[in-house]
Design goal:
Blueprint lengths: L1 H16 L2 E13 L2 E12 L2 H17 L4
Helix pairs in contact: 1-2
């Protein structure tokens, strides 16, 4: 359980630091016979850094509440 908590802490830190991702998809613009024109269409995915802080809190609680060996 402690290892899972550490992984969740790292995930929360990454969500706090990187608050947006941009990825591209190909979109067909023109398709006339053998002539095909495509364009890259950007998509933006963003979130609040507070989500990362909340995930770090959950991971911290998991680490602190794990049984001591």
């Amino acid at each position: 359980m402690k290892k899972i908590g550490i992984v969740i802490l790292i995930l929360g830190l990454a969500l706090t630091i990187f608050t947006a991702i941009t990825f591209f998809t190909r979109e067909k613009v023109v398709d006339i016979g053998s002539l095909k024109i495509t364009a890259n269409k950007p998509h933006h995915l963003s979130w609040s850094p507070l989500i990362g802080i909340a995930v770090m809190g959950v991971g911290g609680v998991m680490v602190l509440m794990s049984p001591k060996k």
